[in-house]
Design brief:
Blueprint (H helix, E strand, L loop, with lengths): L11 H9 L3 H10 L5 H8 L3 H13 L3 E5 L6 E5 L1 H20 L10 E2 L6 E2 L34
Antiparallel strand pairs: 1-2, 3-4
Pfam families: HxlR
Keywords: DNA-binding, Transcription, Transcription regulation
InterPro entries: HTH_HxlR, WH-like_DNA-bd_sf, WH_DNA-bd_sf
């Protein structure tokens, strides 16, 4: 089945989904973020086929989210997050917050996150970049930005 290409849509959500919009990519990014940088480590952790993992890694490298670095003379490669990839992990952290709240169950979250700056166990908290107040979907007005698709002229 041909995968839908969202890259040309004038929508940042669609464009992001074009990069990570299938189930394996976020899990591959998670593994690399926590230090599983080698193909065999990722494959063993996820139980993913070699073919699918090769495709996912190639896709993420192609989109500039990951970089391949040789670590052996054969050569063998490990994968590291680029700046673009590290910022994409922030999206995963927001997903963690949602999953912890709605899917973790009575036992609580499966993973905790210690903030380096203060040393405390913390959760992601979306804040406005201008005033610092909490910011959620109901707290914003969606406006066309400079990269918005042109709107057709109304008939009449």
């Amino acid at each position: 089945m041909q995968r839908t290409n969202f890259a040309e849509m004038a929508c940042s959500i669609a464009r992001t989904l074009d990069v990570i919009g299938e189930p394996w990519s976020p899990l591959v990014l998670r593994d690399i973020w926590v230090g599983m940088n080698r193909f065999d480590q990722i494959q063993a952790d996820l139980g993913i086929s070699r073919k699918v993992l090769t495709e996912r890694l190639g896709h993420l490298v192609e989109h500039g989210v990951l970089e391949k670095q040789a670590y052996d003379n054969r050569p063998r490669y490990e994968y590291v997050l680029t700046e673009k990839g590290r910022e994409l992990v922030d999206v995963l952290m927001v997903m963690v917050g949602w999953g912890d709240k709605w899917l973790a169950g009575e036992a609580g979250p499966p993973v905790l996150y210690r903030h380096h700056a203060c040393g405390e166990i913390a959760r992601v908290d979306l804040r406005c970049s201008q005033c610092g107040e909490p910011m959620h979907a109901d707290d914003v007005e969606v406006l066309p930005g400079p990269g918005a698709a042109p709107q057709p002229a109304s008939a009449g």
